[in-house]
Amino acid sequence: MTTLKLLGAYRVRVAKEELRFITEHVTGSAERTRRELAGLALLEVEVRGADDEFDVGVLHQPGSDQAPYDERYFSLDGLRLFGAERPDVPDFRVCFFLHFFDVTQPIASPEGDLVPPELAETPHRLAELCPYKHPG
User: Fold this and answer.
1) Is residue 34 in a domain?
2) Which of 8, 67, 86, 120 lies deepest, with the highest CB count within 10 Å?
């Protein structure tokens, strides 16, 4: 049986070059860029006992159409990056971005709701390994 634990919800610092790209090619203004990125979070989830059917894409917040974006998979201790593809092991961590994240709402999953902690600063190891790139 797959079990999930939400380890962290982190504020995302977007690189200046990426902010410029979003403003020039996506939103058209710095104010729209700020509004779009205001609810951006990086979530870190511990996954244990995952079978072949586990899909991080089903995690979501009720009432939101936002889905996990730009996943990165790590060893269970969070120290080794496996990459963007799910590893062929049952126990791992996964980090992903979620737009319009609401810290007051759970993350719904087939395994049950995950209650988010308060937003924290992104740990240094994740800031380096999970830089934000806009999907647009």
Assistant:
1) no
2) 8
